[in-house]
Design a protein that fits this description.
Blueprint: H1 12-16, H2 21-33, H3 38-46, H4 58-78, H5 84-96, H6 98-113, H7 117-134, H8 136-152
Length: 153
């Protein structure tokens, strides 16, 4: 895997600037309560899945949705020869600011997941906060390992 050329940095306020104010406040609380952020992303995404629709499989659906979200974001940010055009756009959007990056990533991922932007954008913002803390290369490596582990189990 070649190293991603994108460099992301920023704080919570910068990554959530494009979101509605109530989501900005919720994410700030989530980040304060869960500094690792990984479970916060899953919790945010699972809030969009109704347990009434699949009472016996809701937990599996939540986990699968979270995994698909991470897989798609990993493809966009880390996998060579995938999303080439979007990676070029990301480099341009990164010059504008974090809110532009969140908006672009949301626009790319929403159609693939078949989800609503108000659910995906905050999850992307939380993930980007995590990436800005650990570095994109480290995040890509962790996600690559997660996918490999999942495919061997």
């Amino acid at each position: 895997m070649s190293a991603p050329v994108l460099d992301f940095h920023g704080d919570v306020a910068e990554w959530t600037a494009a979101l509605p104010e109530y989501q900005q406040h919720l994410i700030a609380e989530i980040v304060a309560a869960d500094p690792t952020l990984e479970s916060a992303i899953e919790v945010w995404l699972s809030a969009g899945i109704s347990t009434d629709l699949a009472p016996f499989g809701a937990e599996r659906a939540r986990s699968a949705y979270y995994e698909k979200f991470l897989d798609e974001l990993h493809d966009v940010l880390c996998v060579p020869n995938k999303y080439e055009h979007e990676k070029g756009q990301l480099q341009e959007q990164a010059k504008i600011g974090q809110a532009a990056v969140v908006s672009l990533l949301t626009a790319v991922i929403v159609p693939v997941l078949g989800a609503a932007a108000p659910i995906i954008a905050p999850a992307i913002a939380i993930t980007m906060i995590l990436i800005s803390r650990m570095g994109l290369n480290a995040w890509c490596a962790v996600q690559t390992e997660r996918r490999e582990d999942r495919s061997t189990n």
